[in-house]
Amino acid sequence: MSLLSLLKIGGTTGKENTGRPPEGSREEKERSQRTVEIVVLLILATGTVASAWCVYQAAAWGNVQMENIGALSLMQAQSIRLTDNDNTLRSIDISTFLQWADAAGENQTKRMMFLENRFRDEFRPAFQEWLKSGRPGELPPGTPLTLPSYSLATTRHLEDLRVNMTNKLDAARQANQNGDAYVLTTVFSALILFFAGIAGKWKWPMATFIFIAIALVFLAIVLQRVFTLPVL
């Protein structure tokens, strides 16, 4: 064996006996540690921003839900008043017509004219149409109250109000669903912060890799939901 070979062996043995890791191995370990720290920092930053955004959106959708519920309550109160008015007007028309029919059955012409002059404007077109549908000298079958021409403004307003109430109710339900979706996304964001936060606490590289991988999975879920959920 040559002298050069012996020197190399001796030098190698001397380095191994010092108990210190090679410089290249230590630099590689430090570089890996810095890479892990950067990845964890990016995950934590993204998860924090996503969590704050989801909290804001959940609160905003909660406000939308409360606004629609408030508007729905006002519409319900208005619907009750309109229903009472509608029933009152229909009762007036029914009572006046029944008195007219009773007078017509007894051929009380003056009483009939007296009552006709007091018909409400919304009832008069249906009454005229009903009279024309019968034979001369005979009362037509049925009543004017069943004709399509008998239409009250309160009834039409009630129908429009019911449509608006349905729309408000649907909007409140949708806002509630959107708010719940953002709350669930906030929970996923908290899991990101948890797994990314403990990823750098382990000396075992495989454990660090597993927790970073789990954090990345939840991060992908959160970003997918953030970019697809309705935004205010």
List the helices and strands and how they pair.
Blueprint (H helix, E strand, L loop, with lengths): L2 H16 L4 H83 L3 H8 L7 H9 L20 H47 L5 H24 L4
Structural commentary:
- This protein has 232 residues and is an all-alpha fold.
- The chain has one domain.
- Helix content is 81%, strand content 0%.
- The chain is built from six helices and no strands.
Provide a quick synopsis of the model.
The protein is mainly α. The protein has helices at residues 3-18, 23-105, 109-116, 124-132, 153-199, 205-228.
The helical percent reads over 70%
Q: Characterize the overall form.
A: rod-shaped
Please report the number of helical segments.
6
Rounded average pLDDT = 86
Structural class: mainly alpha
Query: Element order, helices and strands?
Result: HHHHHH
What brief labels describe this structure?
mainly alpha, 232 residues
